[in-house]
Amino acid sequence: MNEMLSYWSERFGPRVFVPAAALIALAAQTGTALDPLRWMIATPIALSLVAQFRLWDDLADRERDRETHPERTLVRAESVAPFAMTCAGLAAVNVLLLLAWNGLAGAASLAALDGAAVAWYLWRPKRRTASSDLALLAKYPAFVVLLAPSPAWPLPSIWIAALATYAGACAFEAWHDSSGPLRVWFNQ
């Protein structure tokens, strides 16, 4: 349990991820009347989605991180089983949350995103590239669409909000990860 707490404090700081979740939830209301209650409920759902995929990314990158980040808790953990079970639990909870939030369409869309993530982790390149990072960051605009009210999904404004979220996530990644391929790509 101590490893799990250490992991979350190390890799999921509230200073970054709570505002990110709040912005995702706000972007999901684009094209509809701003509803503070809906935003307050959507923010923890967005946070749970981000947590699931953050943990999943770190589990998938564990071997890669052994070389570049050997100090990380997940890399040093004797067993990944508790982390994998937590990730699976978050995935199940998130499908149920999306079922309650946007019905079967929301739950099925998240299940499809989960399936796409599984495929990505199985077939992605061995080393990070700018294009692989861009593909990985596509989860953030997907969260916006998942949290949008179901009738808003076809609205152009929600897709614009999703693209703006994607641009923000890409810019943050390039700024935040000084050795990442996006920073190198943008600096060329």
Keywords:
188 residues, mainly alpha, 10 helices, globular
Distance between the termini: 43 Å
Overall pLDDT level:
91
Number of DSSP-assigned strands: 0
User: How much strand content do the residues show?
Assistant: under 5%
Order of helices and strands: HHHHHHHHHH
CA-based gyration radius: 17 Å
Strand pairing plus helix content: what structural class?
Answer: mainly alpha
Please tally the helical runs, counting DSSP H or I stretches of 4 or more residues.
Answer: 10
Sheet of most strands: none
Q: Which shape, going by the Cα principal axes?
A: globular
Helix fraction by DSSP (H/I, runs of at least 4): over 70%
> Which runs of at least 5 residues are low in confidence (pLDDT < 50)?
none
Textual characterization of the structure:
It contains 10 helices and no strands. Helix 2 (14-27) crosses helix 8, helix 3 (36-60) packs across helix 6 (81-123) and helix 8 runs antiparallel to helix 9 (156-176). It starts with a helix and ends with a helix. The mean pLDDT is 91. It is an all-alpha fold. Helices cover 78% and strands 0% of the residues.
Structure summary:
This protein has helices spanning 2-11, 14-27, 36-60, 62-68, 73-76, 81-123, 130-136, 139-147, 156-176, 181-187.
Topology:
Blueprint: H1 2-11, H2 14-27, H3 36-60, H4 62-68, H5 73-76, H6 81-123, H7 130-136, H8 139-147, H9 156-176, H10 181-187
Helix pairs in contact: 2-3, 2-8, 3-6, 3-8, 6-8, 7-10, 8-9, 9-10
